[in-house]
Design goal:
The complex is a heterodimer of chains A (180) and B (137). With 180 residues, chain A is mostly helical. Chain A has five helices and no strands. The longest helix of chain A has 44 residues. The chains are: A mainly alpha (180), B mainly alpha (137). Chains A and B meet through helix 2, helix 3, helix 4 and helix 5 of A and helix 3 and helix 5 of B.
Chain lengths: 180, 137
């Protein structure tokens, strides 16, 4: 029995020893020099303060902008499309535009969630002890924030697109070219 | 006719396994009730926390510690936002009214280029001492 436990212990120890260099390799950031790592460790508090402020202001931005984007869909696009449908007017292009907008809004929600999770993860890393891991995590959060901005740009473009379609619809309606 | 009972004698209920378990349940029913209630409450709490984290409600909750300073800055646009009725006739004036409302709200929605810039770049955050070590974009 003792021999078996020794064997198990030796097996675990050798596995651990084999895994350690691998994890150490992953912990090293290929883009960060030892000097930069020292610099991050020394200015950790300032960096985290800036990130915390950004995190908080982004949360407020998410709530306020998100609310407006949702209201554009729920209080304007959807009721207008419904009204056209109830009046028996062909509104396929407007429905398609509203659906595309709704999908982009969902993507915005998901991407912001991913960004927030990544930012929280980065802020939870002790940058005095793990500067390389912290740096990599911040860079991942950066990529995700850029994606959120891309979603916002797409939403703005789709708001304009819907507006242009309504203008086109109004012209057709005035000229009597709208099919019922 | 034989008056004797042909069946073997049956042990009293309390001495059987079923009887013992019934006796245990009846003796500890209040303890079990409290225990099961706590387990149920724990399960419900865990389920609600999972939903809270996964649904995205967490990101919208500004009553969390660290966000209370910005909570009063939340704009209440729902009350001031133009509401277009989904019922009623469609005529030129209705469409014009919708166009005006839509353009006004669209301007409001687009007035801020949200999440612009790159405040998480190594240069902006001061992550590196030497600008040359900044990874290429």
């Amino acid at each position: 029995m003792k021999r078996l436990s020794r064997l198990v212990f030796a097996g675990f120890t050798s596995l651990l020893l084999m895994a350690l260099p691998v994890s150490a390799t992953f912990a090293e950031s290929p883009t960060l020099s030892p000097d930069d790592q020292k610099y991050i460790s020394s200015s950790c508090l300032n960096i985290k303060n800036s990130m915390n402020q950004l995190h908080t202001s982004d949360a407020l931005l998410r709530v306020n902008r998100g609310q407006l984007y949702e209201l554009m869909l729920s209080k304007l696009m959807n009721p207008f499309n419904t009204r056209l449908k109830l009046n028996g007017i062909d509104n396929k292009t407007l429905v398609t535009a509203a659906t595309t907008y709704s999908n982009t809004l969902n993507t915005f929600r998901t991407d912001y969630q991913n960004y927030d999770v990544q930012m929280t993860a980065a802020l939870n890393i002790d940058c005095t002890k793990q500067p390389a891991k912290f740096y990599d995590s911040v860079q991942q959060a950066r990529t995700k924030r850029l994606q959120v901005h891309a979603d916002v740009t797409a939403l703005n473009a789709e708001i304009d697109s819907y507006s242009a379609l309504v203008d086109q619809f109004a012209l057709n309606f005035q000229s009597g070219g709208t099919s019922k | 006719m034989d008056d004797k009972n042909p069946l073997p004698p049956v042990a009293p209920l309390s001495t059987t396994l079923h009887g013992r378990s019934m006796s245990f349940l009846s003796h500890h029913r209040y303890f079990l009730l409290i225990f099961l209630t706590i387990i149920m409450a724990l399960l419900m709490t865990i389920a609600s926390m999972i939903i809270y984290y996964r649904s995205g409600a967490l990101q919208l909750d500004l009553s969390r510690p660290g966000y209370r300073s910005v909570a009063p800055k939340v704009s209440n646009d729902e009350n001031t936002f133009s509401d277009f009725s989904p019922t009623g006739p469609i005529d030129t004036s209705t469409i014009k009214q919708f166009q005006d409302d839509y353009k006004k709200q669209a301007e409001s929605a687009k007035e801020v280029d949200a999440f612009n810039g790159d405040p998480l770049s190594p240069a902006a955050l001061g992550l590196t001492d030497q600008p040359s070590s900044t990874p290429a974009q």
